[in-house]
Amino acid sequence: MFTHLVSSTAVERSTYIVHVDKSVMPKAFTSHHHWYSSMVDTLTQSGPTTSDVSHSKPSLVYSYDNVVHGFCALLSQAELKAVKNTLGFVSAYSDRQLKLRGNTGPGFLSLFDSIPWSVTVAAGSIDRFFTGTLSLGNGFTVTGWTLFPASALVEKLPLYYNKTVASCDSTQLLSEQVPFSNIIICENTGSFFSQLEAISRSNVAAAVFISDDPLLSIDEQFPWPGVVISPNDGQAVIQYAKTGDEPWASMKFKKTILGTKPAPAVEYYSSRGPSRTYTRILKPDLMAPGSLVLAAWPPNLIASKIGSSIPLLSDYTLLSGTSMACPHIAGVAALLKASHPNWSAAAIRSAMMTTANPFDNSNHPIQDKGRNNTFASPLAVGSGQIDPNPALDPGLVYDLTPQDYVNVLCYMNYTKNQILTVTRSKLYHCSNPSPDLNYPSFIMLYSNESTAVQTFQRTLTNVGDDAATYNAEVVAPAGSKVTVSPNMLVFSKKFEKKSYTLNIEYKAEGNETNTYGSIVWVEDNRKHRVRSPIVLSPEVMITR
């Protein structure tokens, strides 16, 4: 029972999240919510009122019993101290605003708060292109990109180009110098989003935007008639506007092209690994569609706009970000759990990762928009793009238990209470701390001063229906030697486990470079391929 009492007047209070060990709830209470309410209701406090968040007494805001065990409450400092002395208290911290950390790419180590027991998802593009067609009076036609949401009549209007206003960043200048009902050409000199805002507040009829901004393809608002074209096509359009006899242009909107290549690609904004939270686990895990995803939307909120004053409402809209990619993974995970109810969360993650596709729809390695469309490394794409059908039947999985994760927390010198905050149970122990996990990927950090050697221990579980034999196929990262022992795994029955070691030797030569490889366990009949990426990364890049 909770017995701490103090005198009562209004005082300054803040919101706190309190973690509680629910296993020690006194039998007098019928529910944990009842127990938490009793804790808070018993409190009183003295002191002057000094804040707008003051209340006459402490109050329970919310009870938690799924993701965490505990409650949220408005408490003073003295009341918080009293709570810390109660039965079942684990930890407490003040409520605070957290920033989204998945869209901070494309820099190395731009991935934050990626814990080993989570699934960390990169955001990729979709093989779909929303087009606008620009037709010039000289017969030249170019297909560009647009998300203008209406059918606008842009037919044979004068095409205007003037170097003075071509930056298109001043609504006043545009309104003063561009003739009414003209189509203006905006050069690739600044932010496309600023140009679009300025254009939508001016009196121009439409705009041709010349841009190669990698963030263009995720813009969700296009409030004014316009088409975005490449710098190469832009030169031809400018030349016609400067030299043509009464140059004019027309635009057509609302056409979608499907099956565009190459796709998917890692989006510019998607955060890159390794994770600053724990660098010994390769993150992100895999990639899913994240840009311009058709998403449900509150019908009473503005979904898009025409100009600066005409709002458009809808039950759906296009959204971008890793917050759009994650639901794809969650949905696939739910389907896998329904199909395989006895699989652990780690087994489900493994199935998704080892069957992910590292190639795009042109059968080339997935590209990275944050690296000028060059090869996307596992630090950007993880194991590859989620592929749900193979994930239903992965052949082998890397499984984990909660104690395995606790061993990592013990290695990181977490206190008992900190570990209890995560596990919500006292059943786990720190008798075998370990920095490594039975994870479906590999990352080795090396020093530039010597030859680096690291051995990884892994265990695979056969989730196929029959006995099976698998052989290891290794692509060693540049400058390294990778040895797998044994290089053949023979499973005689379903759910049988087999272990192997993967040993990496790397000679550091002063080059601060990430290198990449993979190990694939291939079934004799080629039915299953269980692939894991390998990354070698210099410690100096991690610790800067």
Automatic annotation (TrEMBL):
Stored Pfam families: fn3_6, Inhibitor_I9, Peptidase_S8
Domain Subtilisin-like protease fibronectin type-III: 436-535
Swiss-Prot/TrEMBL keywords: Hydrolase, Protease, Serine protease, Signal
Domain of life of the organism encoding this protein: Eukaryota
Peptidase S8/S53 domain mapped to chain residues: 256-364
Coiled-coil regions, chain positions: none
A GO biological process held by the record: proteolysis
Domain Inhibitor I9 as annotated: residue spans: 15-100
Claim: Protease is one of the keywords in the record: yes
UniProt xrefs under SUPFAM superfamilies: Subtilisin-like
Family (UniProt): Belongs to the peptidase S8 family.
Protein name stated in the entry: Subtilase family protein
